[in-house]
Amino acid sequence: MSFPPLHYLSKIKPFSFLTEKEIEILIDDMEVAFYKAGKTIFKKGKKVNRLYFVREGKIGLISDKDLIEVVFEDEVFGIEASLNGLPAEYTAKALEDSVCFELKAERVKKLISRNERFGEFFRKILSRKFHSLLKLYDENRVDNLYADSVINLAKKSLVVIASHESIMDAVRLMNLHRVGSVVVVDGGMRPLGIITHSDIVRFVNKNISFSLPVREVMSFPVEVVDSEASLMDAYLKFVSKAINHLPVVEDGRVVGLISSKDLISKIESHSSLLPLSKKIIRCRDIEELENIFGEVEVSVINMIESGFDYSSISTVVTSLVDMILKKIAEFNRIERKEISKDFVCAPFGDFGRREPSFPIKLRFFILVRDDLQSLLNGFYEDVRRVGIGLEVNLCRKAEVDSFLHSSVDASNTLDFLDSRYLLGDGGLYVSFREAVNSYLSNDLAISSLRKLLSELKLSEYHNNSVENLSFFVSNCAKSLSILLGDKTSRPTPERIKLLSGVIIPKSLAEDLREAYLALKKIELKIKLAGKDKFDDLVIKKSSGVIREMGEWVETSFLK
Amino acid sequence: MGGNELSEVVQSDLEKTEFCVIDLETTGLNPKKDEILAIAIIPMIGMRIHAGKHYYTLIKPKKFRYKSIEFHGICPRDISPAPSFEEIGERILELIEGKVLIGFATLFDIEFLKKSFKDKMKKKFSPERYADIAEIEAWLLRKKGMAITYRLDFDTIMKTYGISESTRHDALSDAYITARIFQKQISKLIEYNATIFDLVRVGRRLFYF
User: Residue A194 pairs with which residues in a beta bridge?
Assistant: First the structure.
């Protein structure tokens, strides 16, 4: 025997976090009210002592004639007012015939203090930690595992060798301690290089004498990770550098070693990205690369479902795609010595900023000294064949100024702010950036802010798509960074951090960063895995923050 | 906003009336021979269902008819710890007293209650004000110009109001669904300026099958 409202609520987050007994407590005082379309449920400025759950219909939240949010079936409203005991920030009105479950705020508060997860949900909403709110419902989350620091996994397997000792000594040590690598150190235990199992195989193959001192054959400089760093940091290094061993350092001294195997054994099935980077390095033709790219997408879905945050996901994806691009360049031999001085390839826009969205579509700016166009055609073709969308802006060195000049009004110029070097001649890239920077003026930043605000309908925030909202944030951050004089390409959350307290008020910046990360993750989910009701709630709450941002931009810069 | 302040005030006494939605499970269909097995009561004030204040209990009958299990799913084992009607009769009276009874085939339930109060508690039970959601629905349809000559069944009415609940069919779930249907019917009755007297008049039915 089950009471229908109880049965119903028990299936919907965050009520599903409650035990049956707790839901009984919750609905002990519950009322089910019917509101005819047009009926006011509560008014702005009034006290609200109930939390509302929409069982049927649509509720509009209205502030000063603006419809700021539409609450749909299975969603809650009145959270802030009822739980904080503050006057309502909006008027709630039924937009169509609606049925609401009305829960006494006192009961909800009681359960917030009693049930950890249920409590976390409301605390995160009230403190506007939307990004971490998303994680609450990733059932098989492993991100906690990754938060552990590397030192806990590292200590045992460290074997070191002095630089003057021979390869043979290194082999003996590896054999004795049954390890796959030895770290070459100086007298102060500072890491100089590393020799791994696969290096030894290479030495044998190349007939290198085992009596040579290790300093002559070791890999250096060696990638290291700080002992306080998280397993996630180590993981990202393994993936992005395609390596297997990382010495762990404390104040510059080696104190341990962590291997990708250690990490895999700890994290098991969730580490499908780790082998991917190695597969890319080893792959021999385009077909193989095509398959690997398909696997990248699957791995991203895994990461989403395992509770990874957006920053980690985008870092991993960017490194993998970079590797794929370099591999394609290698197949097409476009970095052959005689021509590598004659061009530069720079991704810009989202991918330039290391915030790729799916399906992956890259924009390249290619600067060439003279007629090299045909040389790159094979490269473009292969990129597309692998499954990566590509848009190319090709420009001759002598014409870079007129090119930039002609695209000053287009949003492109602002996108060039987020360019980065990928292939070709570094010197050419520097001259391109200098040209770009000279176009990134304060006037451009202000006019872009104005355009952004007009595109984002201030009065109808609920009508903006997730992409529109995150686009607004990333572009605002770009424009504001230019106003601050910072013309470096950076991921948006990093920009917001730098702007916080300098241009953007601290609390708004903090909320904005959370909202942005939440929206970006949901954007990925929508495209790859599908969203659920819970995401809608986060989108709405986040769009409230973006509305504040919009209003703040308007009053601070455009009036 | 604004301009509709008038619509915010109570327009009809239906919005303040205390109702109570009832539903029974019985051992059979004949009130003369059969007994009540379960009762659910859900109070309402106007269009507001006081869901938290619902009352539900199984009732141990004198005779259990195995044949009826297929209709209500209640087994002898379930009801062995249940109270008898005599033990809960007073409580039921308290809950119903002064309220307008609402149900589906309400008269059928009233006949059972009458018989139980008479036989088991030597009490007279005759609620003056009651309504049947099927009758209300027929009236609303006639208002729209449709000729209704047959009795509307529960599922059809549920569908009309777009109500879907995964839990059916026990007394408490059915009482709750009845309440949700009635909630919407009140809203429509108010549009026709109906009062509580109209409701009782249109919602009454003299025969129960």
Answer: A183, A219
Residue numbers in B near A34 (CB within 8 A): 47-48, 183-184, 186-187
Residue A221: is the preceding peptide bond cis (ω within 30°)?
yes
- CA distance linking residue A167 with residue A204, whole number of Å: 11
Identify the closest residue of chain B to A99 by CA–CA distance. Answer: B180
Q: How far is CA A11 from CA A18, A117, A281, A294, B49, in A?
A: 10, 15, 46, 34, 21
Residues of A within 8 A of B49 (CB-CB) are 31-33
Locus of tokens 């195995």 = B66
Q: Do B162 and A56 touch (CB under 8 A)?
A: yes
CA pair distance A387, B92, nearest whole angstrom: 70
CATH number 3.30.460.10 given to A273-436: yes
CB-nearest partner of B167 from A2, A28, A32? A2
Question: A189-224: b or e for each residue (b if 16 or more CB lie within 10 Å)?
Answer: bebbbbbbeebbeebeeeeeeeeebbbebbeeebbb
* Closest listed residue to residue B150, CA positions, set B209, B86, B204: B209
Q: How would CATH label the architecture of A442-557?
A: Up-down Bundle (1.20)
pLDDT value of position B1 = 40
Rounded CA separation A93/A58 (Å)? 9
Cβ–Cβ < 8 Å for A307, A141: yes
Which residue among A1, A93, A101 sits closest to B172, beta carbon to beta carbon? A1
Enter the tokens of residue B66. 């195995």
* Mean pLDDT value across residues A544-549: 89
pLDDT in tens, A334-352: 777 667 778 889 999 899 9
The CA-CA-CA angle for residues A405, A411, A412, to 5°, reads 60
Nearest by CB: B166 against A7, A56, A62 = A7
Distance CA A405, CA A415 (A): 14
Alpha carbon distances (Å) from B90 to A183, A342, A500, B171: 86, 97, 67, 19
Residues with Cβ within 8 Å of residue A454, at least 6 apart in sequence: none
Q: Do B162 and A29 touch (CB under 8 A)?
A: no
Spatial strand order in the sheet of A181-185: A160-162, A181-185, A191-196
Reported as a single tens digit per residue, the pLDDT across B70-93 is 777 777 777 778 999 999 999 999
**Number of residues assigned to chain A:** 559
- For domain A4-127, the CATH architecture is Sandwich (2.60)
Give the total number of structural domains in chain B.
1
CA distance B49 to chain A (A): 5
C-alpha A468/C-alpha A516 separation (Å) is 11
**Residue B207 forms part of a structural domain:** no
Residue in B54, B162, B167 closest to A7 by CB: B167
Q: Six-digit token pair at A171? A: 């082999």
Whether A101 contacts A513, CB under 8 Å: no
Per-residue pLDDT of chain B (209 residues; tens, 9 = 90+): 433 444 445 567 899 999 999 999 998 888 888 899 999 999 999 999 999 999 999 999 887 777 777 777 777 777 778 999 999 999 999 999 999 999 998 999 999 999 999 999 999 998 889 999 999 999 999 888 887 777 788 888 988 898 877 666 789 999 999 999 999 999 999 999 899 988 988 888 655 44
Domain boundary assignment for chain A: 4-127, 147-269, 273-436, 442-557
Chain A closest-CA separation from residue B133 CA (Å): 17
Which residues does A contribute to its contact with B (CB < 8 Å)?
1-5, 7-8, 27-34, 36, 38-40, 56, 62, 65, 91, 93, 97, 99, 101
- Tell me the CATH number for domain A147-269: 3.10.580.10
Instruction: Please give the average per-residue pLDDT across A439-467, as a whole number.
Output: 81
**H helical segments located in A188-254:** 197-205, 231-241
At CA A381, angle to CA A380 and CA A384, rounded to 5? 85
